[in-house]
Amino acid sequence: MEFNIEDLPVLFPYPRIYPEQYAYMVDLKKTLDAGGNCVLEMPSGTGKTVTLLALIVAYQQHYPSHRKLIYCSRTMSEIEKALVELKELMKFRAERLGYEEEFRGLGLTSRKNLCLHPSVKREKSGSVVDARCRSLTAGFVKEKKEKGENVDVCIYHDNLDNLEPHNLIPNGIWTLDGLLKYGEQHKQCPYFTARRMMQFCNVIIYSYHYLLDPKIAERVSKDLSKDCIVVFDEAHNIDNVCIESLSTDITEDSLRKATRGAQNLETKINEMRESDQQKLQDEYEKLVEGLRGADDGRQEDSFMANPTLPDDLLKEAVPGNIRRAEHFVGFLRRFIEYLKTRMKVRQVISETPPSFLAHLKEYTFIEKKPLRFCAERLTSLVRTLELTNIEDYQPLQEVATFATLVATYEKGFLLILEPYESDTAEVPNPVLHFTCLDAAIAIKPVFDRFSSVIITSGTISPLEMYPKMLDFTTVVQESYSMTLARKSFQPMIVTRGSDQAAISTGFQVRNEPSVVRNYGNLLTEFSRITPDGMVVFFPSYLYMESIISMWQGMGILDEVWKYKLILVETPDAQETSLALETYRTACANGRGAVLLCVARGKVSEGIDFDHQYGRTVLCIGVPFQYTESRILKARLEFLRETYRIRENDFLSFDAMRHAAQCLGRVLRGKDDYGLMILADRRFQKKRGQLPKWINQAMAEKDTNLSTDMAVSLARKFLTDIMQDVETTVVEGVSTWSIEDLRQHQAKMADETIKALTAAREKQLEDEAMAEGRRAEGAESDYEMDEDDEAELMALDG
Amino acid sequence: MSRRPGAGYYTATAAKPGGGMPLIDKNDMCPVCKMMRYLNPDMEFLINPECYHSMCTGCVNRLFNDGPNQCPYAGCHKTLRRKGFKSAFFGDLAVEREVDLRRRVNSVFNQVEDDFETLRDYNNYLQMVEDLTFDLVNGTETKRREAEAQLLQWEMDHKPDIERNRKAGREAEEQTRRRLQAEQELARQRRIAAIQEQEEEKLALVRNREAVLDSMATGGQRVQLKKRGGVKAADITTAAAASAGSSLLPGSLDVGKLSIRGLKEKKKTAAPEGPYDPFGGYDFVPSRYKVHSGLGHPLLERFEHDRAHVTGGYSLEEFTARAMFEAFAGLGVFIEDEKEVGIGLSAGEVTGMAAGIAATGHVMDPR
After folding, report:
1. Distance between CA A485 and CA A487 in Å, rounded?
2. Closest to A678 in 3D by CA, of A591, A618, A593
3. Burial of residue A8 (number of CB atoms within 10 Å: 0-12, 13-18, 19+)
4. Where are the domains of chain B?
5. How much helix, strand and coil, in percent to the nearest 5, is found in chain A?
6. Which of A40, A46, A56, A43 is nearest to A14 (CA)?
7. pLDDT of residue A777
8. Does A788 contact B262 at a Cβ distance shorter than 8 Å?
9. Which pLDDT tens digits describe chain B residue by residue (367 residues)?
10. A364 touches chain B (CB under 8 A)
11. Hey, of A339, A355, A643, A645, which one would you mutate to test binding to chain B, going by the most B CBs within 10 A of its CB?
């Protein structure tokens, strides 16, 4: 269907549109017009991706600026899905418009997924593929080849050089599969095609890390222009991604490897000094000028700032004491030895970067400044030495990144040394956590650089938390409810067991037999009445294991076994995927199954239980984080001191977003239905933190149920929902045809006019009042409230 | 020094494993007396900065308690003293030695960036120092000598500068130390404050509940149950004084000070409304006549006390009042006038009305 939003013609590839999709588009357009950021929450399964793409593509094509879209998603499958949607959309547009638009959309993923080289692509591990690819494709390999030396090259990569650099691949949307096929046909490398074409395409779809992880963003995303539209989809976890991208864990093993790396570097340097003195000298000359120097000749703003490489570093010259390669290696060695010594301490230490630096300086005479240049200096050295087996230097690189970060940021980071894995462990296994506490640091360059950043997800409540944590301002913050012709999901909170005793997974009561038995009863009852699949979420693996063994002792599992197959998620990815496969088979053939999994595990994120694969989701306990972790404690304290977010608020927010994420697994579209059960006494108070669309569907009376009440409610819901319903009921309420949409637009226009006139009248009134007040002279400020009342009335009317 | 101390024990074993040396971690066996950590778990190693050869405390005591002695390592002819031994900070003794040398170099070359006119000069200076250190640490015999001489030369040339910078450096260090301490102290205080705040809140909640229960138990005064959220909000905003107990007593919560829109009491209350009047103030006291209480009719008096006719809620006065009303109802209406004005009534309706009036008149006739 085709319609206008204000002056923007939008082509929507379906004959019907959901009201919330329309509202979403309107808000998106508002954001793009204003050139600001926004946070939008739209229920899962309401076609968020296609809405987003439809509007942004329309926006790109209609306005002359042709802003590029960078769409970031979390997993491979989501990236692939988005590409397929985009392809459909463009096909529809071409049909409607009667011609193919000049449009290019590409997805980018790791080398492992895109490699065509016959031997490299057989490697299992991603990092090995990366390393082998580099050894075949690096610039100096080609130079050597040209000199006539006998070196291995990748034919797929070298073929790219024969093509026009801005037209490696024709216009159109290329899914990852499509890209592979095209690459195979034309014997060109899909990975480098995608990477090199990034400047020349209208839509890029890739993973968060290409934008947030400083190590990757530096290489991949630095050339993107300023007016790009950046979208983070499924962004409810974005703060954790940011933090992880800047945190490092250093172990004794990684330090050992780093030492070996430094030794290798030294031998390489000596070799090179004997064979090719000139290269080292060239590098040295360049470093005298500054890291990037004037040689690049690019405009200043063409770089995206990098947290590991602040702007001022680029302009400055490398400190004299690490300019020479051998000096720098010695410098690294000293630093690594220092870290090794620190790791020998047998008590927990947590310290801030400044105190770490002071101690470091006292013992090794390493100053802060050269430390800041560490990562960049190492990269430069590696480039000069033309090292091919990069993965050997990975640990060294990590140490160097750590050095740079610790010297750059005084605030927002913390060093925590944990000598033992757990409190009871006897054998020391020290880990130095260098943890980032401030999610805003990693994402700051993105907000600084791009004018419009859109953060969206199915469950991103409470919305105001994200701007606070990531430190940005929004133009629009909106949560959309789900318009449904009939209630297709039933959320409820079970607070009491069948014996009317409160149930909770709180620390004090979690292992009491009565609580465990009540949870068991709940499980049995629901496995009896639920058709097909049922998913159960536990707060942690540890608790899941203990409760399952207790259930086994009580004979509860035998009871459940009568109705459903029982499958369990484990930390092992392969086992879990096997369990999932079995689960799907059992659900599809009518046996029915119950999947026991963990609220923060792999299943809770990214695996959809649509239709018969999930009719009930049971969330046992509030999925709080493990609060005894020192890293979490440090982060909580940081949040309190910096952003005034209280510990409990954050913990409860974090728990509820995970709970919501779990609940959202079952409902994957408007024709889907399912039960959502939150089984813990504590959920009752936290209800307000659920996403609006879930909260609205839950009546007050459904928030304090006992097991038997919940069962009867569920029975009633299931019998109601399983009746067939004619599509006419749905029409115009939860889906709009073009006529419905026009009506709605007309209505909205009317309302806008009304609101405008009301505002005008009010303004006149205000003016009159203000005049009157001036005449009367000073008055008490109580009078103000009457104005406000008038305003309230105006809003009501 | 025939053997280069830089080639530390650790690196040597790592480079050529099994090259004559046993493959035991150097932390586990003393290379001098071959004592194993297995036999003596508290074994510690000491080194002497003269030659950086490590040995266990036992060996040190054994060899050097009676005054200076030669290093027990084969080929090392340094004379060592008991006093010079210390435990190594770094695992890699080469680094230990380098750092010791650096300490010396740094005490002489202690200029800072501000001492130079341009950044490049400073960087060149840094490199010069680094070159010198590198020579001292890794250089050949001649290079080392040269570097040593250069170091002494510089020390002679820049004596006042060095002294001044040393002082400044100490001061700066002291300052950062103090700053760090102050920051830590502040953070600690904030942490305590936050915990206290939390506890107070919890306490206030409990007290609130108790107060409500108490007042319910004692009865008497009207219990005013407030919404929990409201109390909390008030607590936070008026955080300062208002001890939780007092703020909970009904009415003592000072709402007037908060200007929350819509919550404020209105100043002008509307005039008190009387009871609802369905007739909108119409007066039913007849104006054209007066109904006397004693009016009656002999015909009716029969029924007045007849139980078959009397029914609850009706009285005979009612009948007379109604009869009088109907009798006078048509008196102010002139049919001719109505016709002339033509209020749009059809002739039929008018006659119907007239008939009705006539009929009532007829009914009233007997009176």
Report:
1. 7
2. A618
3. middle
4. 1-108, 298-364
5. 55, 15, 30
6. A46
7. 53
8. yes
9. 444 444 444 443 333 343 444 445 666 788 888 888 888 888 888 888 888 888 888 888 888 888 888 888 888 888 888 888 888 888 888 888 888 889 888 888 888 888 888 888 888 888 888 888 888 888 888 888 888 888 889 888 888 888 888 898 889 889 988 998 998 899 889 889 988 988 999 999 999 999 999 888 886 555 455 544 444 444 444 444 444 343 344 443 444 444 455 544 445 555 666 677 777 777 777 777 777 776 667 777 777 777 777 777 777 777 788 888 888 877 777 777 776 555 555 555 555 555 555 555 444 444 4
10. yes
11. A355
Q: Among residues 105-144 of chain B, which lie with CB inside 8 Å of chain A?
A: 106, 119-120, 122-131, 134, 137
Q: How far is A792 from chain B (nearest CA, A)?
A: 8
Considering only residues A13 and A794, tell me which one the structure prediction assigns the higher pLDDT. Answer: A13
Size of interface A-B (CB pairs under 8 A): 92
Within 13 A of B122's CA, how many CA atoms are on the CB side? 16
> Which chain A residues have a beta carbon less than 8 Å from that of B119?
316-317
How many whole angstroms separate alpha carbon A594 and alpha carbon A597?
10
Which of A640, A785, A787 would best serve as a mutation to test chain B binding (most B beta carbons within 10 A)?
Answer: A785
Residue type, A462: P
Chain A residue numbers touching B131 (CB-CB < 8 A): 324, 327
Given CB atoms, is A363 within the 8 Å cutoff of chain B? yes
**Hey, are the CB atoms on A317 and B103 less than 8 Å from each other?**
no
Closest CA to A4 of A24, A22, A20: A22
Show which of residues 633-662 on chain A sit within 8 Å of chain B, judged by CB atoms.
Answer: 637, 640-641, 646-648
Which helix (H) or strand (E) segment holds residue B164: the answer is helix B159-218
Evaluate the omega torsion of the peptide bond into residue B5 and state whether it is cis, within 30 degrees of 0.
Answer: no
What pLDDT band is residue A726 in, cutting at 50, 70 and 90?
Answer: low
Residue B114: list chain A partners with CB under 8 A: none
pLDDT at A484 over 70: yes
Which top CATH class is B1-108? alpha beta
CA–CA min distance A467, chain B (Å): 23
A residues 365-424 lying closer than 8 A (beta carbon) to B: 365
Nearest chain A residue to B135 by CA distance is A327
